[in-house]
Amino acid sequence: MITALRNAFRLPDLRNKLLLTGLILVVYQFIAHVPVVGVDRSALNQLLNSEASGIFNVLNLLSGGALQNFSIIANGVYPYITAQIILQVLIPIIPRLEQLQREPGGREKIENYTYWLAIPMAILQTVSQINIFNAFLGGGQSIIPGFGNDFLITITVIITMTAGTMFAVWLGNLITQDGIGNGLSIIIFSGIVARAPSNLQQLMTNSTQPAFHLILFVILTIISVIVVIIIQEAVRRIPVQYGKRVRGNKQYGGAATHIPLRVNPVGMIPLIFAQSVVTLPALLVNLFPEGAVSRAINESFGNQTGLLYWGFFFVLVVGFTFIYSEVMIGNQNLAENLQRNGGFIPGIRPGKKTNDYITRVTRRIVIVGALFLGLVAILPGLVDWLNRTLFPNEAISGISGNPALVLGGSAIIIVVSVITETLRQIEAQLAMRNYDRYVR
Q1: CA dist., res. 198 & res. 194, Å (int)
Q2: Neighbours of 82 (CB within 10 A)
Q3: In Å, how far are 11, 353, 414, 422, 433 from 18, measured between CA atoms?
Q4: Among candidate residues 359, 369, 383, the one with its CA nearest the CA of residue 319
Q5: DSSP 67
Q6: 3-state DSSP call for residue 174?
Q7: Nearest 5°: phi and psi at 9?
Q8: pLDDT tens, residue by residue, 112-168
Q9: What is the pTM of this model?
């Protein structure tokens, strides 16, 4: 990695791309510390230390670390990601969208639809997020006093946070177009990395078993990184043969290649989507009168503890991985593209038989990727169970007692995925320029 970066900095245009990416990340972190007008800091600090801290940490991850200051970009880029997921799910369902995607310039139009859909999603997230946090605070307190009652304050906050979301998306697109690429993931990655040192310090300062937790943190990080890289890079190669065509005195085609089907073709998207859904029970239950059921749900889902929470999270991640994989493979139209270009899988009839074969193979190998994502997602729960078994008298929870929460299982996948993809982008740029000293 160091060699690749050093070689990249020797090329002026690549160096400019890396510097521009770094500058945009610095700008994002500066903006992440600019609070929304009217935020009550004491209420915000109370929320950070309340039973909602587990949910708060999840939403803070999705915002790239901006929610802890209730910044103008506290929504992060998640409304845009939600809009992308909604449209990708709708494309195979709505024939007009599927037809539009195949037309020249259709993808650009769908991208524009995504931007427009991200605006109401950002408004919805802003209003629901503030109201739910107010419900957690209770006692008539509000994280933004006057929100919902004062029209000027309400409309100002909604416009500001919606504009902050679109600004964050714009910064991510700048990284994609003019920087090193993979912009939105790098935005989330920067927030995770920015708060990792403070989380590690909190673990070492407040933990009752600092030496044990430090060793466990190092072991978990090393093993997780190795396994994530193996799974993320693992592919099943399906052989493809192209028929020979004779035109005049020349012969074309006849080449043999393969279709690389990834074990985890969807990356971190199921984790992000599952994290947003798993927060809903604790968020919604606060909108109803308090009772035994609401207290039990808050205890499990609000604090992110217990078999119910981690089991539900695991099922969501595995389920979303299968669903999103089906959508992605379906949108690629691999069988149709093969048939159009004269390609075929040996022993498989072109057309529907090929599509069924690809779908069957994909489902089989995605089982490994889905179970892997599910296990990584519940890694903090497994570590919490280990702590309770080894130290039953210790009552510290959260980051102070769980080394897996310093980064978090989901965050490890995001960090490793972004780093490997960025290195792949750099190596591709070096290879395009015939640079003979890039990392092989």
Answers
A1: 8
A2: 21
A3: 11, 45, 19, 10, 16
A4: 369
A5: G
A6: helix
A7: -70, -15
A8: 888 999 999 889 888 878 877 777 776 677 888 888 888 888 999 999 999 999 998
A9: 0.76
Beta strand spans in 94-148 (E):
none
Strand, helix or coil at 59? helix
CA distance 44 to 23: 29
Residues 6+ apart with CB under 8 A from 243: 253, 254, 342, 343, 344
User: What tokens appear for 163 in the block?
Assistant: 């504009």
Where exactly are the structural domains of the chain?
A: 208-413
Paired sense of beta strands 343-344 and 244-247, if any: unpaired
- Provide the 8-state DSSP code for 363: H
**Could you tell me which residues come within 8 angstroms of residue 271 by beta carbon, excluding any fewer than 6 positions away?**
317, 373, 376, 377, 410, 413, 414
CB 180 within 8 A of CB 22: no
Instruction: Write out pLDDT tens, residues 170-213.
Output: 998 898 888 887 788 788 788 778 777 877 887 788 777 788 88
What CA–CA distance (Å, rounded) separates 132 from 281?
Answer: 11
Q: Which residue has the tokens 């971190």?
A: 268
Q: Which CATH architecture has domain 208-413?
A: Orthogonal Bundle (1.10)
User: Alpha-carbon distance 421 to 423, whole Å?
Assistant: 5
Choose among 335, 353, 287: nearest CA to 132. Answer: 287
Is 251 in a helix, a strand, or coil? strand
Residues 404, 412 contacting (CB under 8 angstroms) = no
CA distance 20 to 43: 37
